[in-house]
Design brief:
By secondary structure, the protein is mostly helical. It has a domain of 45 residues. It contains three helices and two strands; from the N terminus they run ααββα. It has a two-stranded antiparallel sheet.
Length: 125
């Protein structure tokens, strides 16, 4: 009988310990449930954040689309036109520099001719 009482006391201790563990588990679950409540809020929870992000994504997409196409013209086409204009401008500048170089050479030739003329006049004079 003494052995039965000891075994029963051990089993009771195990059951009480298990009950304590289950109560702590229940408290933790309640705590987690309270922590989940703000995440489930229709105005500030996860779904509200996802909905807000979808709206932001849509506005960003619209802004990008407006940048990519303005007045019926695609961005790539506008950039290509600017690039072509730059190349043409560089060519025109190179041509103008060439003309100025030739004009400078002509000026030097004319200066040389005037110097010869002056020298000749000085010798005759």
């Amino acid at each position: 009988m003494n052995q039965f009482v000891e075994a029963s006391r051990g089993r009771l201790g195990t059951l009480e310990h298990t009950l304590g563990l289950l109560n702590r588990f229940k408290e933790e679950l309640d705590k987690y449930q309270r922590e989940l409540m703000p995440l489930q809020s229709p105005t500030s929870g996860l779904e509200a954040a996802i909905s807000d992000l979808h709206g932001r994504r849509d506005r960003l997409d619209q802004s990008l689309s407006e940048l990519e196409e303005m007045n019926g013209e695609r961005l790539a086409g506008r950039v290509e036109a600017i690039h072509r204009n730059k190349v043409e401008t560089e060519q025109r500048i190179a041509e103008a520099v060439g003309h100025f170089t030739r004009l400078d050479a002509l000026r030097q030739d004319v200066d040389g001719l005037f110097a010869k003329l002056k020298s000749t006049i000085d010798k005759l004079g």
